[in-house]
Amino acid sequence: MKSLLASIFLLCSFFIHAQYKFNDTSYSVSIDDLTTNEFIADSTAKALVIFEEGNSFFNSSLSKLNTEIKRKIKIFDKNDSDLSTVEIILYKSEKRRKEEVLKISAETHNLVNGSIITTKINNKDIFEEEYDDNHTIIKFTFPNVQDGSVITYSYTQESPFFFNFYGWEFQENIPKLYSEYRTSIPGNYDYNIKLIGKSNLIVNESKIKYRCVNVGLGGSADCSESKYVMKNIPAFIEEDYMTSRHNYLSSIEYELKAVTHFDGTVNRISKTWKDADKELKSEKSIGKQLNKTSLVKKLMENAAREIENPLDRAKKIFEFIQTNYTWNGEYEIFKDLSLNQALKNKTGRISEINLLLFNLLKANDIDVKPVLLATRKAGLPTKLYPVISEFNYLIIQARIDDKTYLLDATDKYLSFGELPYKCLNYYGRLLDFKKGSKWIDIKPIKNTSVLHRLNLTFQDDIFTGTINSKYSGHKALPKKKAYFPNKKIYLDNFKSANSHIEVINHAIKTEQNTHLLFEEEIEIEYSEYNEAGDRLFLDPFLIKFFRENPFKLQERTYPIEFGHTNTFSYMAQFDLGNNFEVVNLPKPFSVGLPENSGSISFNPTVSQNKLMVVFKISLKTPVYSSELYNHLKQFFNTLIDTQTKTLIELKKK
User: Fold this and answer.
1) What is the mean pLDDT of the chain?
2) What single DSSP character describes residue 239?
3) Cα(50)–Cα(149) distance, integer angstroms
4) Total number of domains constituting the chain
5) Are 310 and 229 within one domain?
6) What is the pLDDT of residues 46-55, one digit of tens each?
7) Phi/psi of residue 231, each to 5°?
8) Is 361 within the bounds of a domain?
9) Domain boundary among 388, 422, 441
10) Cα dist. 311→298, 303, 422 in Å?
11) Number of H helices, E strands in the chain
12) Residue 56's domain spans which residues?
């Protein structure tokens, strides 16, 4: 018996080892790479990077930055994997300088009758396309890709741009077994280096190579040669309630800080914020646009000047810009900015609309300053040093009677002092060219909440009554945007999403599309219940806050970023009259999240044959750490189970 158990153990150990018997030490394709068709660590993976390496270095004349790339990828499911097509994005400047790709080699490897058959891509199947004014794309698709194939490709990317040394993403949306990145940087190039993400480097080493670069007239430089390695990197899976994935993907980024030339002169590229403020102040797209009050003085025909109260005056100006000028959908805040064109066309980019607001407020004696920020999808700007290209949005700070307001006039449904959800990205840079710029927090001005009050009476085998709903903060904004442009479509969509409710009448209490609240009253009939003899089983939740759990991962390595606090309240009264009585009432309960950061309470009661159901959910913080993920996932399971599985048993009197 012991011998049998030992044999089984050895067999299982061999099987497990065989599952991982990929050749993750080199670029060459092995039989094991092709015969191993499962990745136990992530059985959902459609593909796996077995091996990849990058090597970035300057050429001998210091005129180009070369990066050599090699990748070997196992395809488990060709239909669900988009890796059979490779796209390489290349940058080009307005001065006709551009990045290029050299020496492309791409092959598909399949196992046929025990032999490795390799199919190479033809050069004629490699295409170059224009992407935008500053980028081109090199694209090619692997031939003969099947389930179980291994694809390999290599190329050299040549760049004349040294500002951003080639960055390396160790993590992507499929798992990786081995990822290695090597760099060789001459000592006269000084870079800020930033490591992002939670995965650990198993190799992080550097050494000096003397006289690695030799230029004319005896000039030479030593190089810092570095090697970074990560192994067994999980796939990065995006889930609801997160900002940009680039905030959390395990990667390494570079930005040129200074160059020391061979004559001893130093060119400082990356500045301090003091330097950046000085440049922004004189820069034509921002600084030069902050003194255009004469351009806007005739707007509103002095109507704002007649308003004595500064807050009311500011609100009137905000409403004027918001109503009369339209955002054209473009985010570029620095390039070719023209307030004259925005005034003429009554449309413009984010920075143009909000700088019109800035100048009109300033012309009417309101203390204003511009604020640079990045949207949630753009990623967080680094606080270590100024990188102006990381900002893609501009708003205005107004200070009135010792109170601060953050303003964005590009959205016609925003209230004064309210920012769109996309801007709730932790912090922004307040530009103050007298006292110096500084970081400020970006927060919503009002708590976000949803409240449903139901008052229903049972008669003639049907419940009739009203639903009064109130949405505030960032829950009100999508409701306003859905209702005010087309009221009929709004109501049709409501009926479609709530087919179990018969809508008799619908009324809106919110008159202005910029109000912080959206309130509606719906007169309904409701007969969705189950009868069994003299019993009736009632679902008390006519409206549900969530229909499925947004959190499905086994583990989440990045925070849960709601952007604002959340409160959901459901209060329903069912008058059962003389027909039915409650015979089985669910038990009340209350549960909470760690550190008092959230709670759920459910309290059904009966009084004078009226059934009351009170259900409250509170998420008290805008951001939850990844350590609380499983708690939050269970929290939502409880929330959804309560709203989808609660039935109250009634009995005919």
Assistant:
1) 91
2) -
3) 12
4) 3
5) no
6) 999 999 999 9
7) -125, 155
8) yes
9) 441
10) 20, 14, 26
11) 10, 36
12) 7-266
